[in-house]
Amino acid sequence: LSSQERSVRLRRWYELMMENKDELARIITAENGKPLKEAQGEILYSASFLEWFAEEARRVYGDVIPAPAKDRRMLVLKQPVGVAAIITPWNFPSAMITRKVGAALAAGCTVVVKPAEDTPLSALALGELANQAGIPAGVYNVVPCSRQQTAAVGEVLCTDPLVAKISFTGSTATGKILLKHAAGTVKRVSMELGGHAPFIVFDSADVDRAVAGALASKYRNSGQTCVCTNRFLVQKGIHDKFVEKFAKAIERELHVGSGFDAKTTQGPLINEKAVEKVERHINDAVSQGAFIVTGGKRHSLGKNFFEPTLLSNVTTKMLCSQEETFGPLAPVIKFETEAEAIAIANAANVGLAGYFYSQDPAQIWRVAEQLEVGMVGVNEGILSSVESPFGGVKESGLGREGSKYGIDEYLEIKYVCFGGL
To answer: CA 319 from chain center: how many Å?
Structure first.
């Protein structure tokens, strides 16, 4: 199809998502327990990528390069890479698909989507709407599979020579396995992998604003997002004040319950294994001297529900400071100097998102440039948007999604030299 035709059909897909947004949100809540209000937010976010890339489809520009010889003309074309395999996680079962697929289809690629085994229905629902939008058969393909078959299906997608591109969002460990498989045929890869986001609160910060940002950054989707804060670093001068206000905000504003209950802000974790990891991190921290300020145990509602938890007196030697928890646990580490905070934040081998609060302009520039992450929130706890490039550094991944840069992940640059003119 021409770029204009692709644009029109992506736009129609977006419109259908908006027309069916409430039903799509209910599917997410039923699949992964996300509070319905958050699920509704995810659908709006998901749909925005189809709208964005419908517009970007018509802006894939090449170049004419001034030639060194008079009898030549030098052109640069951008062409679709080909079949793209899309492997997505359960925590954003709709948005992680459209962020990749929107770019791929805008570029002119076809896709094979393997959704997470926990959340296949969101991918299939998007497929139904794609059909209604006039996306041709065979362009958007979904391959659901069981947990037992996941590794085998992933290997086929990464090794089959017909697949030209792999785009994966998930854990760093799984990403490394897929990279090894993809290396055999030297496929193009995009990887959005695990994070270990620091959230630094300096003495100059507006504490109330920092607490509000901390609540949003840590407890969205019960702490199960890749850009969730995993470590809070709070400077000595305001440490006690921050912890006190944060604990009160947690107890006042967070409510554990069914995702379909309008009051709920904290749904269940995805499975019991996830709950056990939170418990392990808390038990390890407490055994080494950390204090439970609030929460700390499973909720009475059921085995996959966990109380929003705040720990103080945390050190860098504890598991919760070294591993991504992916649950509703906020550990607070006290620090004294800016240099110390930067060193702790950058000690991780991953670097997806980082946040910090400060009212000092010079400090803001220094810290924003020194943090080894792909995305920085300055006095802001929520940073994702369709207009901004999403991705990390170090072992948090390769490439960027969304924004004007996202479509480049699905395009090859071809140089054409005309001679004898």
So the answer is: 22
- Give kind and range of the element (H or E) at residue 105: helix 95-107
| pTM reported for the whole predicted model | 0.96
**Domains of the chain: which residue ranges?**
3-193+396-419, 197-378
- 197-378 has the same fold as 3-193+396-419: no
Mean pLDDT to the nearest integer, 85-95? 97
Quick: pLDDT tens for 143-172: 999 999 999 999 999 999 999 999 999 999
Q: Quickly state the pLDDT bin for 18 (edges 50, 70, 90).
A: very high
Among 192, 338, 372, 409, the active-site one is: 192
Known active-site residue 276:
no
Residues 394/41, Cβ–Cβ less than 8 Å? no
Q: Is there a catalytic annotation at residue 192?
A: yes
Ramachandran angles phi, psi of 277, nearest 5°: -65, -40
Q: 152 phi and psi, to 5 degrees? A: -65, -45
Average pLDDT (323-330) is: 97
Fold of the domain spanning 3-193+396-419: Aldehyde Dehydrogenase; Chain A, domain 1 (3.40.605)
- Which listed residue (42, 51, 109, 226) is catalytic? 226
Tokens of 221: 């989707």
CB count within 10 Å of CB 417 equals 11
In this structure, which CATH number among 3.20.20.370, 3.40.309.10, 3.10.20.30, 3.30.43.10 belongs to the domain 197-378?
Answer: 3.40.309.10
Query: Which two structure tokens, joined as six digits, stand for 30?
Result: 């039923």
- The half-sphere exposure of 38 on its side-chain side, counting CA atoms within 13 A, is 27
Instruction: Find how far residue 232's CA is from the centre of its chain.
Output: 19
The residue type of 103 is A
What dihedral angle (degrees, nearest 10) is formed by the CA atoms of 242, 243, 245, 246?
110
Average pLDDT over residues 291-306: 95
